[in-house]
Write a structure and sequence with these properties.
0% of the residues lie in helices and 52% in strands.
Length: 87
């Protein structure tokens, strides 16, 4: 399976990086890198908000049923500044 779209962003922790891939079959993959360590985030999805913006939601729900999110596309339909489209 090949990568259809590839995005890179600085992570929430200094020195870390997020890599978001959309595979040719539409499957989203979110990886977090810190030095030599990497984590494949659990079950990433792209969710559209009521204002038209989109977030990447990932991980297991917390006690309140909420998962972690990363802003991805703003309300104007533009890629968030923190992301760089590579492919």
């Amino acid at each position: 399976m090949t990568v259809n779209e590839l995005y890179v962003s600085k992570g929430n922790v200094v020195g870390s990086t997020f890599v978001f891939m959309i595979m040719e079959n539409g499957t989203p993959i979110l990886m977090w890198y810190m030095g030599n360590s990497s984590v494949k985030e659990h079950n990433p999805t792209i969710n559209k908000k009521t204002n038209g913006s989109m977030v990447i939601e990932y991980g297991s729900p917390n006690l309140f049923g909420v998962r972690q999110t990363l802003p991805f596309v703003d309300a104007n339909g533009e890629l968030e500044e923190k992301w760089e489209k590579i492919k």
